[in-house]
Amino acid sequence: MSWGHAALDLAEDADERAVKRAYAARLRTTRPDDDPVAFQQLHQAYQAALDWARHRAHWQDEDEDERGHDLSAAQATGIAEALPLDQALARSFAHDATAAPAEVVWTAVVDDADAHDPVRILDRGDTPFPPAAPAAPARATEPLPQPAAAQLDPGTFAQRVIAEAQQSEPAAFERWLQLRPELWSLRDKPLIGDHVLHHLLTHDAPICADNFDLLAQCFGWDDVGSGLDPYEANACRLRLHRLWVLQPRNQHGLARYLHRPQAPVNADEARTRLQRLTRPWQPWRALWDAWPAHRVAAMRDTLDLLGVHDADDAVPPLRPAQVAFWRALADGQRLSWPRMQLALLRSALCALVVLAVMTLLGVLGRAPAVAMQGVYAALLVMGVGALLLPLRSLGQWQLAEEHPPVRWPLLRLWLIPLLAIGALLVIHLGDARIAGSALAWATLGLSIRRWWHRAGYVFQFNGWLLLGIWPFLKLGGLALMFGEVAVVGALLAWTVDAMTKVVHR
């Protein structure tokens, strides 16, 4: 028995006419404006019951044709009374069926609330009747005109569904889906869902996660037998939601997407971050936006949450130049020109502060020498700030492991011996012992740090350890002027590291 018959409280042998009468009776209490969900269920039950009744009638007609039974005059009269023909024509046909005509061909039009139902020919062929006195010929009947059924284009309507999902809030979009008559058809709804899913998987359509869930529920994408990979569906959902929060009108959605308990983000902050990534590229403005230390980390977290790892991942309205700039600043393992520019800007700001303070002290104390010292202090701060980032990058480059390989592996391996040899040349050939010794001791510190870090040793400070090495620290202070000692120590630490990490592997 059809589930539609059960939903409409019909018997199993209920014909098409009974199904339509039950559906019309239910429509009086179930209206689409009052309860869209119940109306959609009622319409689906009506379609299922109608299809069952039509198939059942078709099977019965085939069985009767195989048996070869002919219609009698009484049967013809009963059928004529059941058909929704003109009443006078029905009486005339019933009277003529017992009176005269030997051969009659007649048609009927089934009254159907669904405009798509075609004109059905109930009987066609030679129907024998008992011979009788000739009578007036039966009036020819023509099928009642039916309006042309508008063919639904699933692809076009799928585009309409996608556009509505991009523009509407979840509550309004859910009601819109429930009130679409195009989605009440059991035949058209799967076709529309296939077109919508194909478009979402292959195109960038900004849709919020809630609206995507409504589409999945409407078209059954989350069902077990849908055939859609749940991981692929979730990846598509996240990708479209990230595109949705990038739209300027969805700043509140972007704030909720970026918000973390340890790093709260409000709507204004979300709008500001989005503006940094979407405004036209201006190098000096971008550098000025990045000079506070916390902004680089905030923009790095924003790009990570949005799934934008490089300029190639930038989708409208993001600017590839802005994305590349902030990504270069966030990459602390590589020395790049944007990082160098930012270091110069920060050191220049610090130098200006030092110069302003020293000049103010010189003016208030009436000491011009203090103001001149401020100039030297500002230049020193500027130089240290400019060299700090390259030295830090040099240290990270030397401390990196052999795998994965880094840039310029040969130079990385032989840098410490080259620096040690250079320190000796400065001391003996350049007759600059102080400068050469400073270079030698810096090389020793770098070599020890490289060996200690790559060997995996961990240093734990202890007060007793300080007392034990205190004599050596005093001797080291005396040996600062002897760069040759530092050169020997640097070469020794480098040799141990090279033998364990390079040669043996």
Automatic annotation (TrEMBL):
Record key words, sorted: Membrane, Transmembrane, Transmembrane helix
Record field: transmembrane: 343-364, 370-389, 410-428, 464-494
Top-level taxon: Bacteria
Protein name: Molecular chaperone DnaJ
Record organism: Stenotrophomonas nematodicola
